[in-house]
Amino acid sequence: SKVGDPRPGQPYKGGNFSAFLPDNKDGQKTAMLLKKAFERGLTFQIKSCNGEERVTWGLIPHKTSWDGGKARNGYPDAQYLREVCTML
């Protein structure tokens, strides 16, 4: 089990996760960095919620909506690609 697993060896629920990037040079660069982070186990974490463990987003911010702005994890957010690339 990985560091941060609240109950190592216990089953946990998965989920469906979607994130969006623009199809341009900066978006493609970000996608490559996010892929590396995923391969290193940094994209998701397991959290205990109401007595059951489940997979959730980790600390790397993802845009989960095309709209709604920064407040709703969406676009427009002029700083997002620069901020996430700096973090990655």
TrEMBL record:
Annotated organism of origin: Caloenas nicobarica
Localization per record: Cytoplasm
Region (Disordered): 1-23
Family per similarity comment: Belongs to the Deltex family.
Pathway given in the UniProt record: Protein modification; protein ubiquitination
Keyword Ligase found: yes
Main location: cytoplasm
Protein EC: 2.3.2.27
Pfam family, one: DTC
Listed GO biological process terms: Notch signaling pathway; protein ubiquitination
Protein name as catalogued: E3 ubiquitin-protein ligase
Record's catalysed reaction(s): S-ubiquitinyl-[E2 ubiquitin-conjugating enzyme]-L-cysteine + [acceptor protein]-L-lysine = [E2 ubiquitin-conjugating enzyme]-L-cysteine + N(6)-ubiquitinyl-[acceptor protein]-L-lysine
Keywords tagged on the record: Cytoplasm, Ligase, Metal-binding, Transferase, Zinc, Zinc-finger
GO molecular function, one term: ubiquitin protein ligase activity
GO cellular component, one term: cytoplasm
Domain Deltex C-terminal: 5-85
